[in-house]
Amino acid sequence: MANLNIDAEKERTFQAIVIGSGMSGSWAAKELCEHGVKTLVLERGRDVKHLKDYPTTSMLPYEFEHRGQIPEAVQRENPIVSRCYAFREDAAHFFVKDNEHPYIQEKPFDWIRGYQVGGKSLLWARQVQRWSDFDFTGPARDGFAVDWPIRYKDIASWYSHVEKFAGVSGNKDGLPNLPDGEFLPGFELNIVEKYFQEQQKKNYGDTRPMILARCAHITGNLEYYAQQGRAKCQSRNLCQRGCPFGGYFSANASTLPWAEKTGNMTLRTHAIVHSIIYDEAKGKATGVHVIDANTKEMEEYYADVIFLNAAALNTNLILLNSTSNRFPEGLGNDNGLLGKFVAFHNYRAGVSAEYEGHMEYTTQGGRPTSGYFPRFRNLLKQETDFLRGYAAGFSARRYTSADQDGIGLMLKENILNPSKLSNWMVGSHMMGETIPKESNYVALSKEEKDQYGMPLLKVNVDYDGNDEKMVKDYLEQMTEMFDRAGFKNIRTRDDHRAPGLDIHEMGGARMGRDPKTSLLNKDHQLHACENVYVTDGACMTSTSTQNPSLTYMAFAARAAHHAMKNSTNF
Amino acid sequence: MAIRESECTKAVNNAPCIKNSDCFFILRYEHLRPCLTIGVSNYLTMQRRDALKALALLTGGAVLVPSCDFMKEDILAAYRNLQVTPSLQKLLAAIADTIIPAGTIKGAADISVQDFILVMVNDCMKEEQQKVFMQGLSAFNDYSKKAGGKSFAKLTPEQKSAVVLAGFDIKNEPAENENEKQKLTRENEDAVRECLQITKRFTIQGFMMSQYIQTEIKPYQLIPGEYQGAVLVSDIKKEIIHG
């Protein structure tokens, strides 16, 4: 019996454990496995194999029973996830339904999740803009949160590392606040987007450039990506179904198969991590408790190093639930700040308008990206009565529609030959930085548990006055820019959506220099438990305005190499 | 019996079907309805399937839904939120076919657009909209007799068009000292108008997004081609498709 136990324990012992198989976890796994580290990847959901498990990927519109629409009863049962733009009939199977993992909204918060191998990397909007020192020095300069313990120079080469492997298309724009990267050829801006770009230059000099957004799509260097079994993006714009070409970066198409090919990765699905095991005698984490989602039985796995990449809020949940004599308030939580200083991106506002020029032109084909405004507000110095600023999306297009008057053969012929071409419709949406505050937090419920016995997460996150001022400023500034460019019929909106729907929730286990005011050090290790690394959204000290996934990927790769360099057992 | 009672109650909207000895049974297998094998649709389909399976167990194998409405006609089980009889379904097909008739290419009824309309009304509309739709559809033949002199099926194609077109313009003000019967007629005719609007919208969607159109007439391109940001409108040549 004794031997059997030893064997069983041996079988459950690895060099590294990565909790989470999505955007950041898959990068940690890929780096570790590629360098010979025996790695267990734990995923709470089901497996989703590239190609094989994309059931809708090649379906034609008529093959969807409701032509894409989510039925009323499903919306009624799932009000939270139904508010997500991508929760449609073609991708609904990749989203967590409301009752699958309940949580407590102390304030309204739409928590959008993807519990499967690959996580939300299957579903993301694939925008990948680098941070610069304008972002990393933000908290120190403007006096909020704590200073980031790293600067652009610490992460620049890791950005290059992940961009090259993931495949990023874009233009070299030479902007100090949005550094250039390893770019494959960029998609085209259309004639009205280029017109607006010129107008911006004319009206604002170099202070408010509008550029092509960089996106994680393959547009060149095809032989290199063929090694991953991936091919050129076909501009289908059906990414959320999983791409049969591997045209965009997902863990499923890229990092996970790469890790698997090394023979060093063990993937365990349906594994809900209950907590990280802390060994007081050894003064470090030794493994994880896992609940099997099917049997609900508890198992243990062991490793020298643990990467926590469960997605921002679930990473907080696991740390808070990892209690011991040494850490009664959650692993590494000596200062009581775990779960606090959560922030997000403010996507509430948008502006649309029409343009009556260039009417002899239109566009054809598909494009998986759009135009992008890097942050221009409060960039070089504080210049408004609110902190920080916003990035914004921008695009222009014309719509073809049909005259739908009347009935009969005339109607039929009209709808078969749509001939009404709209004016150019231009639109923008804001992506505002929110300020991390102690009062924006997540915590564990003491009473309520989910179906696996895990305490429910209480979410208490809200906008503040800074956000309101920023929304107002965005609407004013964008309206002015549209007006000066000659756009007509300008309309503004503020949809007052709840936080969370941005799907950019961050923080709770922030990085910092001082263990008294932060949870993680400059290398993503818990200050108080150095063999636990956190490189997903939970680690973020501030949010800046860029879509965060690229930064998580670079952090994960960097931290994996730090772990390999510093572990005596690898 | 609890399952049967609750499922049946849901299927026929509180009609006293269990005790109704006149109930007919029809065979309407759920799997005849085109459906996905994944995700949400699967989830819904599974619910229906489970319900029908439960019925099957209790009724000795036949998958049946008893008719419980006053016309003593069968109810189509696939549309459990609606009380659609085969004759109403046929009527809906005739209306859809008047909106998009056969010509050079097939029309709405040729490709059963009525079934798509019923799926959408049943699954994707709110209860109040479903009620108005069914009220209008049920009252449509009365309206047809008033506006065209005959029930819809007996009209010529030209008369059908005239009746449907007039239906979109129904605008009845309440009469002074309106009695109950007048009120009901007015409400029914308002419902006819709304039913026609819903029907037209889903007829256009169901026709254009049908297998027939997307594979035979205007093959849908899953790969739309590389983006071109400045194409002269005058350079785009499109072959006219005749309806």
The DSSP helix count of chain A reads 14
Q: Please report the distance between the alpha carbons of the first and last residues of chain A.
A: 30 Å
Class based on secondary structure composition and strand pairing of chain A: alpha+beta
Rg result of chain B: 21 Å
Q: Choose one word for the global shape of chain B.
A: elongated
Tell me about the largest β-sheet of chain A. Answer: 8 strands, mixed
The chain pair with the largest interface is: A-B, 54 and 59 residues
Q: Which structural class should the secondary elements of chain B be placed in? A: mainly alpha
Mean pLDDT of chain A: 97
- Percent in helix of chain B: 40-55%
> Looking at the structure, what is the overall shape of chain A?
globular
Placed side by side, the strands forming the largest sheet of chain B appear as 1-2
Write down the secondary-structure element order of chain B.
Answer: HEHEHHHHHHE
Beta-strand segment tally of chain A = 23
Oligomer: heterodimer
How far the N terminus sits from the C terminus of chain B, by CA atoms, comes to 52 Å
Strand proportion of chain B = under 5%
Uncertain regions spanning at least 5 consecutive residues of chain B: 1-49, 51-71
Sequence stretches where pLDDT stays below 50 over 5 or more residues of chain A: none
How does this structure look, described?
The complex is a heterodimer of chains A (about 575) and B (about 240). Chain A is of the alpha+beta class and about 575 residues long. Chain A has helices spanning about 1-10, 25-35, 70-75, 80, 135, 140, 150-165, 190-205, 220-225, 255-260, 310-320, 410-415, 465-485, 550-565; strands at about 15-20, 40, 105, 210, 265-270, 270-280, 285-290, 300-310, 340-345, 345, 350-355, 360-365, 370-375, 390-395, 400, 420, 425-435, 440-450, 455-460, 490-495, 505-510, 525, 530-535. In chain A, the strands form five sheets. In chain A, strands 1, 2, 5, 6, 7, 8, 22 and 23 form an eight-stranded mixed β-sheet that branches. In chain A, strands 4, 10, 11, 13, 14, 17 and 20 form a seven-stranded antiparallel β-sheet that branches. The two termini of chain A are about 30 Å apart. In chain B, helix 3 (about 85-100) packs across helix 4 (about 115-125), helix 4 crosses helix 7 and helix 5 crosses helix 7 (about 180-210). The model of chain B is unreliable at about 1-50 and about 50-70 (pLDDT under 50). Chains A and B meet through helix 3, helix 8, strand 12 and helix 12 of A and helix 2, helix 4, helix 6, helix 7 and helix 8 of B. Strand 12 (about 360-365) of chain A pairs antiparallel with strand 3 of chain B, so a sheet runs across the interface.
